[in-house]
Specification:
mainly alpha
Length: 291
């Protein structure tokens, strides 16, 4: 890889690793749906501005707009809503570990859709991932059923995100600009979140604290715009196989951040569980074609 590829790797890993603590800063006063509305409204406007300034096109056929709107439910609405609600009872590092299983889910779902028996390497990777997450969450069982419900919500969000990735891949096969589609997708996602918020009677407020505002700014720019742009560029330069090795890196960094900021404890279960998750993600990355 060239130096710029390492830069993209570093930026993406940094952005994804640092996303989860600001996410937890959004919880409390403002309803999760409203916080997500602000996040993707800001991110969508920034993406459109970036696309326009970089000479890209924002024009999409009407039929594609409909597909992008449907896709936004998976990538910029339902998945994150479940994660935000799940975050009430889980540390930021544990959220990252669950999300890192998305790549395993994508390949498993693809094998099912294509009616192909998954490779042995992929099956082992999935088993490692499930066992690893289970070991990491084992100490959480002492806190009652709430962490298990949160875990289920986060796995549901990861599953929805994985389905969105597959739908996005089919959209890309029609030579639709990913940047343009996601610029519109973020705005469509914010529109759906606004409707959900109105139906649930939530107020469109913003918590006037540095944590909330700083977290919102970070999630809108670093986590949504910069991370997305860097990751797509990396895939185009080195292929999805090697790019997916990022899922090996960012859970470790996120847990280290959680240890520092939230007093996350490295139990023997957490250590062995993380090793299994990393091993599973590594096997998964090696099973993906590099080009």
């Amino acid at each position: 890889m060239k130096p710029f590829d390492y830069f993209l790797y570093g930026m993406t890993a940094f952005a994804w690793s640092t996303s989860w603590l600001p996410l937890r800063w959004q919880l409390g006063v403002v309803a999760p749906e409203v916080s997500l509305f602000w996040r993707f409204l800001i991110a969508g406007i920034l993406m459109m501005t970036f696309t326009a300034l970089s000479g890209g096109t924002l024009r999409l056929p009407l039929a594609i707009h409909l597909r992008v709107a449907i896709l936004s439910l998976f990538l910029f609405c339902a998945n994150f809503t479940l994660f935000y609600y799940g975050a009430f009872n889980l540390s930021s590092g544990l959220l990252a570990v669950v999300f890192s299983t998305a790549s395993l889910m994508v390949l498993t779902i693809k094998s099912a859709i294509d009616r192909e028996w998954p490779q042995l390497q992929l099956m082992i990777a999935v088993v490692f991932g499930i066992l690893g997450v289970g070991l990491i969450f084992l100490p959480e069982l002492e806190n009652g059923h709430a962490p298990l419900i949160s875990l289920a919500l986060c796995f549901g969000g990861t599953l929805i995100f994985s389905l969105g990735n597959i739908l996005s891949g089919r959209l890309q096969s029609k030579n639709i600009s990913v940047i343009s589609a996601n610029s519109w997708g973020m705005l469509y996602g914010s529109a759906f979140l606004a409707m959900i918020s109105l139906m649930r009677g939530h107020s469109f407020i913003i918590e006037p604290t540095w944590k909330y505002l700083g977290g919102l700014a970070w999630l809108s720019t670093i986590s949504s715009v910069i991370a997305f742009t860097c990751y797509l560029t990396l895939i185009g330069r080195i292929g999805p196989g090697r790019a997916s090795y990022i899922t090996v890196i960012f859970p470790v960094l996120a847990l280290l951040i959680s240890q520092r900021a939230e007093a996350f404890e490295w139990t023997i279960f957490a250590i062995f569980g993380l090793i299994l998750v990393i091993a599973g993600n590594t096997l998964m990355a090696r099973s993906v074609p590099r080009q």
